Sequence to fold (73 residues):
Amino acid sequence: MSTLTLRVPDELDRALERQSAAQGISKSDLAREALKRYLRVAEFRTLRTRLVARAQAGGIDTDEDVFNTLRKR
Fold:
């Protein structure tokens, strides 16, 4: 496991401290989980952007277009 050192504003540190105490986990575990979730969402958004562009290039612009395409199969 690697070590990451970062600076955060005091208010963010206090919020991290409050949440770690409320959840009964360390600040490191909470920050690690938050970073993991953020990266998953970022990866999802990147993938979604690429897939939407690809779908639109294929004439699929709405949810209804998706449903109609699936019904044809």
Notes: The mean pLDDT is 95. Residues 45 and 67 are 22 Å apart (CA to CA). Helices lie at 10-23, 27-57, 63-72. The chain has one domain: 10-72.
